[in-house]
Fold this sequence. Notes:
Layout: H1 13-23, H2 25-42, H3 44-47, H4 79-115, H5 117-131, H6 135-146, H7 150-176, H8 180-187, H9 192-200, H10 205-229, H11 240-247, H12 256-282
Helix pairs in contact: 1-12, 2-4, 2-12, 4-5, 4-7, 4-10, 5-7, 6-7, 7-10, 8-9, 10-11, 10-12, 11-12
Amino acid sequence: MTETSPPKKPIGQFGLFWRRLRRNRLAVAGMLIIAAIVLVSLLAPHIAPYDPLKQNYRALLAPMSGQHWFGCDQVGRDIFSRIVHGAGITLRIGVLAILIGMAAGIGLGLLGGYYGGLMDICVVYLTDILLAFPGLLLALAVIAIFGPGITSVILACSFSSIPQFIRVTRGVVLAEKEKDYVTAARAIGERHTAIMMRYILPNCVAPLVVLVSLRMAVIILIASGLSFLGFGAQPPSPEWGAMLSEGRAYLQTAPHIAIFPGLAIMTVVLAFNLLGDGLRDALDPRMKI
C-alpha cells in the first residue's frame, strides 16, 4: 500500500500576505533598508566615530579619507557621524508626525463615516479645507503660528497627514457599516463604540498600513524641505535637511557636504515608497500567488 502524504495545513491570511510581500524583491529591499536605518539610529553613539557637533578647524572642508569617510563640513565636523546621528532625528519626526496625524484622522474618519449626517458633513468639509492647501504650504502656515523648530515641523507634518487618514478610514467605514455583521452586532445590543473599535476598525488596518508607509516618505521630504528653508531643525543639529542647506554654499568647492545628506534623504524616501508599493500589492485580495 502506498502511503498518502498528510494534508497540508491551510495558509492563513498572514501567511498569504507574507508570501506575496516576500516575492516582491523591491519591497523586501525597501524593508531591509528601513531596518538598517532604524538600527543605525539606535546604535548611533556606537557607530559614529566622532561627536557630530564637535568642530575641528584642522579639517575644514576636508575631503573623503580613511579618517573621515564622508569628509568634513565647513567647520570641520565629521559628515558621516552627523548623518548617522541625523537618522534618529529624521525617523523621530516621521514617526511622531504619523502617530499624531493617524490618531486624529482615524478618529474623525470613524465618527464621520459611522454616524453620517451632520457629523459626516463637518468631517468632509474639514477634509476638503485641509486638502485645498498643498502639503508644504500648510506646513509653512503651521510653522508661522508656532515658530521654527523640530516640534513645529512635527505638528506641521501631522496636520498635512490628517486629511489622507480621514479619507481612507471614512471610505472603509462607509463600506463596512452596511454589512451583515455590523447589523447583527447592532441587533444584539452592541454599543456604537464597540462596533467601531471591535468590528469596523480592524477592516481598516490593511489600507492604513499602506498609507502609513507612503506618508512616511512624504513627511520626511516635507520635514527635510522645511529644515532646508530654515524653518525646521536649527544649526548645529545634524538633521539631514539642515545639513543639505549648509552645504549648498559649497557645491563647487566641497560638494560632499551636500551630496551625502541628499543621498541619505533619497535613500530613506525611496525605501518607504518601495515598501508601501509592496504592501499595497501584498494586501490586495485580488492578487494571486
